[in-house]
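U., I forgot to send this yesterday:
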Amino acid sequence: MVQRFESGARMSGAVVHNGTVYLAGVVADDLTQDAAGQAAQVLAGIDRLLELAGSDKTKILRAEIYLADIKDFPGLNSVWDVWVPAGATPARATVQAALYTPEALVEIVVTAAV
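Result:
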């Protein structure tokens, strides 16, 4: 069985299959924020989507983080390090990438257990 959450014409925000939840790339709602501000919004969005899917951040298996500029790595980590539970850090990769609009500074893709 496949469950889809926040489905639209192009993608779903989250898809659950065989006890695993796959999140689409999560971006900030307020793109006027700096990278740390956008990261905080993205992480709140991840929390919300995981809850919809019956999971939470302690069950994240993998995180793929995309930064528009790698110089924002310290700002991202300042928010990430407070958000991620001690002892539950996922496998993670962070890369610099062109995002969907120049104002977007952070996008995160997560895979988690349900």
